[in-house]
Design brief:
This is tRNA threonylcarbamoyladenosine biosynthesis protein TsaB. Pfam families: TsaD. One of its GO terms (biological process) is tRNA threonylcarbamoyladenosine modification. It comes from Aliivibrio finisterrensis. One of its GO terms (cellular component) is cytosol. This protein has 233 residues and is of the alpha/beta class. The protein has two domains: 5-95 and 191-214, ATPase, nucleotide binding domain (Nucleotidyltransferase, domain 5, 2-Layer Sandwich), CATH 3.30.420.40; 97-185, ATPase, nucleotide binding domain (Nucleotidyltransferase, domain 5). 32% of the residues lie in helices and 30% in strands. The chain is built from seven helices and ten strands. The chain has helices at residues 36-51, 70-87, 96-108, 148-154, 168-171, 173-176, 193-205, and strands at 5-9, 14-21, 24-31, 60-66, 91-95, 112-120, 123-131, 137-146, 161-165, 182-185. The strands form two sheets. It has a five-stranded mixed β-sheet with strand order 3-2-1-4-5, sandwiched between helices. Strands 8-7-6-9-10 form a five-stranded mixed β-sheet, sandwiched between helices. α3 packs across α7. It is globular, with a radius of gyration of 17 Å.
């Protein structure tokens, strides 16, 4: 039987919560960058009640570990750790970029996905992922932060069609249009807890869950240079 996973993500403008129990997904989401702290716990309560389970009944708690807004990532892990400590649950961090790759497969069946999140300050968080036969993802280009024009010299020519996901493609459309990629656009703009919960089930089965006190965000650039999303406090 698959693990029962609750996922929480506030790393970008999208605030989302998802619960997978016995193959069924219960989810809530809202693009509300200034209201994550207000919305996320009520979302948690709603999905637990809808599924008819208690937090203590779950196997693990997943969270969006970044990259994303410094403040947003910290909010997400703080809330997730509080819930995990209270229910004595292990935690699983999920890359926001990999979650968007999974969304590209879930919504479009894409097996090659290029993810770009607007990182502000003229930069993008960028990663490229290929789906394996066992439904896991391997990165073709590891997640990193770049000025869009720098990607032109960093990125080798890629084969096949790549589905593009994330806010970075619109934010830096002119520069990214020069990349040597055969691209197909999608409406996937943000990571979502539904995809994080699915990926967390895989990682749980692989024994990759950690005690809550050992869970941490992942930053791909020095925290000194982080700039908050509009409306972040």
């Amino acid at each position: 039987m698959s693990a029962k996973i609750l996922a929480v993500d506030t790393a970008t403008e999208n605030c989302s919560v998802a619960l997978i129990v016995d193959g069924k997904v219960y989810s809530r989401r809202a693009v509300a960058p200034r209201e994550h702290t207000i919305k996320v716990l009520p979302f948690v309560d709603e999905v637990l009640k809808e599924a008819g389970v208690r937090l203590q009944d779950l196997d693990a708690l997943a969270f969006g570990q970044g990259p994303g807004s410094f403040t947003g990532v910290r909010i997400g892990i703080g809330i997730a750790q509080g819930l995990a400590f209270g229910a004595d649950l292990p935690m699983i961090g999920i890359s926001t970029l990999e979650a968007m790759a999974q969304a590209g497969y879930r919504e479009h069946g894409a097996t090659q996905v290029a993810a770009a999140i607007d990182a502000r300050m003229g930069e993008v968080y960028f990663g490229m992922y290929q789906r394996n036969d066992d439904a896991t993802w391997t990165y073709n280009v590891a997640e990193t932060v770049f000025k869009p024009e720098a990607l032109l010299t960093y990125l080798p020519e890629q084969s096949g069609e790549w589905l593009t996901v994330g806010t970075g493609w619109d934010a830096y459309a002119e520069a990214l249009a020069e990349l040597p990629l055969e691209r197909k656009a999608s409406e996937v703009l943000y990571p979502d807890a539904e995809d994080m919960a699915f990926l967390a089930q895989q990682k749980f089965e692989q024994g990759l869950a950690l005690p809550a006190e050992e869970s941490a965000p992942v930053y791909v650039r020095d925290t000194v240079t982080w700039k908050k999303l509009p409306g972040r406090e």
